[in-house]
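Input.
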Amino acid sequence: MTILVFLLNVRSSDLNSALCWFQFIHDPLQVVILVLNEM
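Output.
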């Protein structure tokens, strides 16, 4: 559920949310790796 937490954290910025969602749909693995690196 780390992805949901990540999305909630960037919810404050609509632009970041849109970019995160676009990247998540475009390449889910890349987002997962990004989240793991943030931890």
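The chain has a mean pLDDT of 72.
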